[in-house]
Design brief:
The chain is 26% helix and 27% strand. The longest helix is centred in the middle third of the chain and has 21 residues. About 3% of the residues have low confidence. The protein is built from three helices and six strands, in the order βββββαβαα. With 144 residues, it is an alpha+beta fold.
Length: 144
């Protein structure tokens, strides 16, 4: 996981960085996740949409209107196939988003989450004073 940007859209939802599943110079398939506080099932904290985009080789990616599957007519269908590596990457990213929601809920405003190894995480974790130190300190300075 690279840096994840989460931007709250309401007290109970937040947009997340796109998960790029497939990309060439002119096309890409992304999953656009959204964190949600689901009142009916707390564990159901991520929803999202798949977006397939095309662009010119020298253009940048633009959010454009999409065609919803509800626009399909009778006897029409749509097939979206994910390669095994694309599906594995999607599952890994979704697991991270579920863990992020379980730990932080819906953050307010814009929040960046950056992966760190366990040694850095331990250094950054807030420490709590142990009660024995507080008692020893109190005795040392003469507080009854």
């Amino acid at each position: 996981m690279d840096k994840r940007v989460v931007v709250s859209t309401s007290p109970s939802s937040a947009d997340c960085t796109d998960i790029i599943l497939r990309e060439t110079t002119t096309s890409r398939l992304v999953f656009r996740p959204k964190l949600v506080d689901n009142p009916h099932e707390h564990a159901a904290a991520v929803r999202g949409i798949f977006i397939y985009q095309r662009k010119g080789a020298k253009n940048t990616w633009q959010n454009t209107d999409t065609i919803p599957l509800s626009a399909l007519k009778k006897d029409e269908g749509y097939r979206l196939e994910l390669a095994s590596l694309e599906l594995l990457n999607l599952v890994r990213e979704l697991i991270l988003l579920y863990k992020l929601h379980a730990k932080h809920g819906i953050p307010f405003g814009m929040t960046e989450f950056v992966p760190v190894d366990s040694a850095v995480a331990n250094l950054a974790a807030p420490t709590r004073p142990r009660p024995t130190r507080c008692i020893a300190t109190a005795v040392t300075v003469g507080i009854p």
